[in-house]
Design goal:
Layout lengths: L2 H33 L2 H7 L4 H7 L3 H16 L8 H12 L2 H13 L8 H23 L9 H21 L6 H12 L5
Length: 193
């Protein structure tokens, strides 16, 4: 096999893996992780289950790939996230209901002891809370207008972000995530611009 052929094969394999991850995201959004099967994902991309296992040897490996891909979509370089940009992130999330639904379904399922994403979400939230504390510290210093430290306020900020997503998923006509989040920023002391 020539170098060019090897690169073409690798490119095709990467494209197929990306297609499988997108299909897995859709299936998980529809059925939850426990209800999603490798066979359903394989069927959606026109593969046999054995063909899918060539790319992802286990359902857990596919789940990790879905979660990693979702994190890549939302990645912000360290130190670049600001409190005012969080409102833009909320608006962006409102344009991606399938991604938010998948994330929310996996998060809800992951609270059980044996769920393969439990460690992922536990570690992710440690990092998210630390990142939100940095954002709050950059905006307010060591104390918010309420007197809370950034570390004490960070879990509340994360809870508002995630809680709004759940409410919006359940009733998108009644819950305007972006407006509600801007209202929360006003409560924190941020201007309502």
């Amino acid at each position: 096999m020539s170098y060019g052929d090897a690169m073409t094969a690798r490119t095709r394999s990467e494209a197929r893996r990306a297609e499988i991850v997108r299909a897995a995201l859709e299936v998980i959004a529809e059925r939850g992780y426990r209800g999603a099967s490798l066979a359903a994902v394989a069927e959606r991309v026109g593969l046999t289950q054995q063909g899918l296992l060539h790319h992802f040897p286990t359902k857990e490996a596919l789940l990790v790939a879905v979660l990693q891909e979702r994190d890549r979509w939302d990645a912000m370089p360290a130190g670049r996230l600001r409190l005012d940009l969080l409102a833009s992130l909320v608006e962006y999330n409102a344009m991606r209901p399938a991604i938010i639904q998948t994330f929310s379904a996996l998060l809800g399922e992951s609270v059980t002891e044996d769920h393969p994403a439990r460690t992922y979400f536990t570690e992710r939230y440690v990092g998210v809370r630390a990142g939100m504390a940095e954002v709050l510290r950059a905006e307010y210093g060591d104390r918010l207008p309420s007197g809370l430290t950034p570390e004490r306020a960070a879990p509340l900020l994360v809870a508002v972000l995630d809680g709004l997503q759940y409410q919006w998923l359940l009733d998108p006509e009644s819950v305007d995530m972006a407006s509600a989040f801007r209202d929360f920023l006003t409560l924190l002391g941020e201007s309502a611009d």
